[in-house]
UniProtKB/TrEMBL annotation, chains A, B:
Record: residues binding substrate: H63, D280, F337
Organism of this sequence: Roseibium aquae
Name of this chain's protein: Thiamine-monophosphate kinase
The protein's annotated pathway: Cofactor biosynthesis; thiamine diphosphate biosynthesis; thiamine diphosphate from thiamine phosphate: step 1/1
Additional detail: Reaction mechanism of ThiL seems to utilize a direct, inline transfer of the gamma-phosphate of ATP to TMP rather than a phosphorylated enzyme intermediate.
Gene: thiL
Amino acid sequence: MSEDPARDGNGGRPGEFDLIKTYFAPLAGDPGSLGLTDDAAVLTPVPGSDLVLTKDVLAADRHFFADDPPEAIAAKALRVNLSDLAAKGASPRGYLLGLALPQDWTEDWLVRFTRGLAADQAAYDITLLGGDTICSGDGLQISITAIGEVPNGKAVRRSGAKPGDILFITGTVGDAAAGLKVLLDKSFSAESGLSLHDERHVIDRYLLPRPRMALTGALRARATAALDVSDGLIADAGHMAVASGVDLVIDLARVPVSPALRQLRANSPKAFAACLNGGDDYEILSFVPADQADGFVAEAARAGCPVTPIGRAEQGSGAVRFENADELSGHLQGPGFRHF
Amino acid sequence: MSEDPARDGNGGRPGEFDLIKTYFAPLAGDPGSLGLTDDAAVLTPVPGSDLVLTKDVLAADRHFFADDPPEAIAAKALRVNLSDLAAKGASPRGYLLGLALPQDWTEDWLVRFTRGLAADQAAYDITLLGGDTICSGDGLQISITAIGEVPNGKAVRRSGAKPGDILFITGTVGDAAAGLKVLLDKSFSAESGLSLHDERHVIDRYLLPRPRMALTGALRARATAALDVSDGLIADAGHMAVASGVDLVIDLARVPVSPALRQLRANSPKAFAACLNGGDDYEILSFVPADQADGFVAEAARAGCPVTPIGRAEQGSGAVRFENADELSGHLQGPGFRHF
């Protein structure tokens, strides 16, 4: 009874115990994972810390394409969760992986998928704590629960913005949505005047979110509210305005965009507006008190994370208004990308 | 931008924000859930405690039938995770729910599913901390990450059994596997001599695991190793023997079974043996030092959890041997139920 089950009835592919031993156990560096040999992981929290817990479920042909590179699927599944931790000011501690493989999974696919996880574990200082693998008969689904740590009471929420606070965004927005359009519509690039270089840039932004872990310290120290942009810049800004009970003014002339998106804005304001609120950016929107804004910018710069002020909170109850909408007026409706 | 998205493009069904507000937020009693209005949950661990983390993914027509009562599906998904916590000696703290709905989900189904969660939350003193809901285009899948607490260093593992320790099992084993056989094979009951009452009993055991939360205190105080039986009595006993580096002797005359399974043993030793190692029992197998065995039995009885000694650990390296196999000899091969 002590042997692992043979590769029987499984098309020559390894069974669950073999999968764990060969592919997942090497990802489980934290002693709390118990080497994935037990029913559960056992985590000793750092004294004085809170745990931040987030969970995202990704399904093939809904959140990624089934034939995307397995490394990229693994990275996306992990990174969308890491991005939530970053926005809450939390440092990654570990994650649990729920993997529902399709009937026709191959060992080569799994080698590449776990290689993608290993690369990101090293890049983001997080390891596998546990999980479950099934073969579902349906399309690939990945459910990750990520766990972060933050000093007691220091998690940054959506709800702390005050009138007068400055709204910041990291990086640039709209690229990922443009990348999805390029992938879905072969005529989009030509119609929008995107160069091959632009195309590559926006597709890469769609495939591979870059969670802004470098900003967690500055957020913890100075932000009154924050979230990561997954539903769309305006939709997510609205979520914070509602949660904080403030109105929000966004200066559209200040929203930072890539050269590709500038090109798009010039050629098709409507498509540009859709991308601006298209979601999947995984940049961080945050509110910072006005007297802390310079310090926040300096601290972010030291961390290597570009931030741009794009608006402010005002007395109100959750409305979002725009300045310098110009040719985008009338195109900025809609609730952003609906993941559901 | 502050409105929830309307019920557009969704066949008149609520969108994700409405689902959260109407169905999931009422399940989120812990303040750490932030009312499900943020990107993540924030949990303040009880000082001096470890967290126990477990994750099980369940798929329609793989771990349950798609047309099972929604309340039962909810209960099963939550309870298989609770059972892992119980076996580690952990008290439930909260859970995250990943729900991938099929395209044809109905609001009525969701009402009943969340009602099932609510009932179990009350029964097992656990609340929803967060999660994610998607509509996948595939069959229903449920991924739950459950979080338990245990005093520092007191989590019970698979690996602590010593030669001389007594092997205990809670309740009875084999019923759930018999229930699955009844559901899959219409001639099984008649061939096995099961009465209508027997049928109902075993089907109920298959549909609704009863995690043995009552035993957590006794396990923490006295067990050297424990796990819950999901793969099958003998397979899971073997896992503990391997992890602990001991041999294991199981006295098959002492393994507690229900009247339905006694009937099955009399009529079909082969089918009985298959059920005994069929899995999905969610009873707890544990090792207890011989000098603690009486105390363990008494403490379990006070907690209302029946335990039966069925074997012992011996010097060795992971082998499982049987006493009183009798007519079951030759039928006790195989690795147990393969969830994968």
